Amino acid sequence: MSTRRLKVVLDKDTTYDIRVGNRLLTNLGVHLREATDATKAVLITDSNVGPLYLEKARAGLSKAGFEVFDLVVSAGEESKDIAVAAELWDALAMLGIGRDGMIVGLGGGVVGDLAGFVASTYMRGIECALVPTSLLAMVDASIGGKTAVNLSSGKNLVGTFKQPIYVAADLETLRTLPAAEWENGFAEVAKSALLDGTDFYQWLIDNTGALLAHDEAAAQQAIVQSLTFKARVVAHDVKEKGERECLNYGHTFAHALEAASKYRIPHGRAVAEGMRFAARLATEAADSPETFGEAQDVLIDALGLKPVAETFSADELYEWMFADKKVRNSELRFVFVSAPGKWETVAVDPDLVKIYLILWEQARM
Which fold has domain 179-362? Predict the structure, then answer.
């Protein structure tokens, strides 16, 4: 299978390559040599991914002449923490990493967020490349430049915008991905297809079977289409002042659900539930047709993302929603989609949101 190559162009001074294919870990150093003058590379990974791919990444970097170091954090959302970031800053200093160094985030979305945040803040910023190893990270978190750590008050409340210099989505890493993690990725693929328009939406409907079978060609196409869509949106709105808000579809509810569950419900499943919730709320808050929500449910169900069975109190979810960084002027803002490619951001009456949260809670009793 040939490697697909995309270029993200944000302005004349900010461009970077994304490659989607096989053997990208083996050739990691060669490709990074085209993007950086750094002489030292620090791999940041986690305790799940490290045993699988750290040595291959190290070998690829060393072969290209980089002096390579590695730092391993515990797997899980708990590592997206300012204390963990501080430990990594200290480790970088003890290793003698200066502006001749770069960070390579090897892992899923948590590692990517953490590695990017550390790279953007250490020595006021050093270069960062990302090697996403989960479908979820490949289709979403690996590009766009958002980095963050969580606070006890909410998710992603401390962060920066830090664009990577290179992204390598090695399809070989998907072969060790558990089925549940494929489903997590499908949620963000569905989100992208719903926002992008009819062509991607219809492709996804036609290829759900191939994706559920973990067909590599279908996975590559889903990743490329998702990244092409997101790259276009980010290029138009780097700092999320307008169009980029669409990427938050489903996330207002999702972040509250993740926090209420203490991150037992993973991001992709939470986003799928958030899209279901938004579609129902939109019928009253934005006069969206019920038929869209029904069609969206069919697509999400077909991708193996059944409705969340666990229940959480409406009051708790409501409180978490107001801790979300998307709240402005004490207004809850939702992205609503009424048809593939047609979306809007709406400030919704908090009382109406509360009613729909109560309905969501009651449906699980």
Answer: Dehydroquinate synthase-like, alpha domain (1.20.1090)
* 214 carries an active-site annotation: no
| Contact of 164 with 142, CB cutoff 8 Å | yes
- Which architecture characterizes domain 4-176 according to CATH? 3-Layer(aba) Sandwich (3.40)
| Rounded Cα distance, 209 and 214, in Å | 9
Q: 3-class SS at 18? A: strand
Q: Are 292 and 279 in contact (CB under 8 A)?
A: yes
Q: Which of 181, 240, 245, 258 is catalytic?
A: 240
Q: Is 244 a catalytic residue?
A: yes
pLDDT digit string, tens, across residues 168-209 = 999 999 999 999 999 999 999 999 999 999 999 999 999 999
- 31 included as an active-site residue: no
- Catalytic annotation present for 248: yes
Told to judge if 58 belongs to the known catalytic residues of this protein, a careful annotator would answer no
pTM given for the model: 0.94
Q: What is the pLDDT of residues 318-344, one digit of tens each?
A: 999 988 766 766 788 999 999 999 999
Buried b (16+ CB within 10 A) or exposed e, 196-208: beeebbeebeebb
Q: What is the SS3 assignment for 272?
A: helix
Give me the catalytic one of 31, 40, 80, 146.
146
Among the listed residues 191, 251, 269, 276, the single catalytic one is 251
What are the structure tokens assigned to 362, written together? 């009651």
In the residue annotation, 344 being an active-site residue is answered as no
| Catalytic-role residue among 188, 245, 258, 273 | 188
Catalytic annotation present for 124: yes
Q: Is 255 a catalytic residue?
A: yes
